[in-house]
Amino acid sequence: MAKTAEDNFRIEVWDREERALSETISRSPDSTVSQAAWQAAIRRRPGMLLIHYNSRHVMEKILTPGEVKIPPQTIIDGSVHAGLDVALGDLREWHVLRAWCRSCSHHATVKPAGLIERYGKGALFSSIERALFCTSCDRGGPVRLEIHRLPRN
C-alpha cells in the first residue's frame, strides 16, 4: 500500500531492541480506526514491541504482555492473518466462513452464528478447526477455516 499524506496513523511491530521493523500492521487516515487496530494488535501480538504513530510522532509504545507465539517471518511472508489465531468475536456480519477438509479437499460454508452459539465469541479458530470434521469423508480434521466476504448487491 502506498503511503499518502492522509495515512497519518500507523502501527508498527519492531524487534525488542527496536533495531529492525518486522511489519507495519495498519495505516489509516482515521484516528478511530487506528485506535481499534491498536487494541487488536495488543491482543494479537503477544511479547512484541508495538509503536503507534501519528505522522512522525510516537503516540504509544508498548512491549505487549505474554510470550512471542509466532515467528515474525510467518507474519511477513504470509498474508495479514498468516500464523495468527482469529477469534469468532472478531468476525462481522459480512463475513462468511468456509471450511476445507485437508484430507479430501471437500469444502462447505459454515455459519459463524452457529459456531458462536456452540463455542462462544472468544473461541479461536485453532480450537474450532480441531473440533470440526468433514461431512464428506467423515474424518476428524484437519479442517481449515477461511474468512470470506459476502458479495455486495
Low-pLDDT windows of residues: 72-83
Question: Roughly how many Å is the radius of gyration?
Answer: 18 Å
Please state how the strands of the largest beta sheet are arranged side by side.
Answer: 2-1-3-4
The topology string of helices and strands comes to: EEHEEHEEHHE
Q: Average pLDDT value?
A: 78
Major sheet attributes: 4 strands, antiparallel
Q: Tell me the β content.
A: 25-35%
Question: What would the principal axes of the Cα set say about the shape?
Answer: elongated
Measured between the Cα atoms of the first and last residue, the distance is: 27 Å
Estimate the helix proportion, in percent.
Answer: 10-25%
Query: How many helices?
Result: 4
Beta strands, count: 7
List keywords for this structure.
3-stranded antiparallel beta sheet, 153 residues, alpha+beta, 4 helices
Summarize the entry for a quick read.
This protein is α+β, with helices and mostly antiparallel strands and 153 residues long. It has helices spanning 31-44, 72-77, 112-119, 125-131, and strands spanning 9-14, 21-28, 49-54, 57-63, 95-101, 107-110, 143-149.
